[in-house]
Amino acid sequence: MTATIIDGKMIADRMQAEIAAEVEQFKARFGYAPGLGAVLAGDDPASAQYVRMKRRACEKVGFTSVAHTMTAASTQEEVEAVVRALNDDASIHGILVQLPLPKHIHEERVLRLVSLDKDVDGFHPENIGLLGMKGREPTFTPATPTGCMVILKEVGAKIEGANAVVIGRSNIVGLPVALMLLKANATVTVCHSRTKDIPDIVRRADIVIAAIGQPEFVKGEWIKPGAVVIDVGTNKIDDPQAEKGYRWVGDVEFEAAKEVASAITQVPGGVGPMTITMLLHNTMKAARRIAERAAV
Ligand code: GUN
């Protein structure tokens, strides 16, 4: 079997066009555009690049955006003051605190401060808690895990009753995607650095979500024939053959896995474009909720 290669960029472009159309309607009705406020603290070049990409996507769909860029020496109080100001700013409907924050900043205290109405990253402990509870629904769910779930629906993967294996347990991807799969009635196994015999666990998986941050960690021979494979990894590896001297690979051995899976995402062009799109989707939802409440 050769897998369907899931084109995340195509799904993202389609969804972004839908959001752009909704922004036009929103502006016509309320007289202003949805706004995203980003907080970037520290000098991590990858984080700065992500924030640039997110702001560019905002512009593309017609949102306004502001970025509060702070040095790595910023204090807890300074970061918290920026979040409070965004909470109070009526032109801002979604707040994005780019992670990781500098080590001396208490992440949980910052994320807890974000207004629940503007928590478009879904990282407020209340939203994560609701995500984990039966019969409860968070207002917002984190962008990358939501992107994974949209992709699974797009390819028609049967989630209910499926054996889903998540590799990685980060607060940003592994843990929330495991909770989302559980909510969708999958039987979920989460593998991490202390898990014994990961290959055998993956061999039983109908759905594999690889979010471990290690280049080509998941081998093609581990994949069960017909499984759906979602690769969240984006790892930069040296490649003297490549024009730039490096290339991006995922957490899955793509060439081998695509011969066994029924559907698989590629890197780049798989989950990445969906992450930004889900942030836009959440910001649109936040603006709609706030505006409609004010209009009553
Ligand atoms: N760092 C890595 N991924 C993300 C994300 O989805 N949101 C935020 N805020 N920070 C991140």
What can you see in these coordinates?
This protein is of the alpha/beta class. The protein has two domains: 30-115, Rossmann fold, CATH 3.40.50.10860; 143-272, NAD(P)-binding Rossmann-like Domain (Rossmann fold). The protein is built from ten helices and eleven strands. The chain has helices at residues 8-30, 45-61, 76-88, 107-113, 125-132, 143-154, 174-183, 198-203, 254-257, 271-295; strands spanning 4-6, 35-41, 64-70, 94-97, 163-167, 187-191, 207-210, 228-231, 235-238, 246-249, 263-265. A six-stranded parallel sheet has the order 1-11-8-7-5-6. The protein has a three-stranded parallel sheet with strand order 3-2-4, sandwiched between helices. Helix 7 (174-183) links the parallel strand 5 and strand 6. Helix 1 runs parallel beside helix 10, helix 2 crosses helix 10 and helix 6 crosses helix 10 (271-295). The radius of gyration is 19 Å and the shape is globular. The mean pLDDT is 97. It binds guanine.
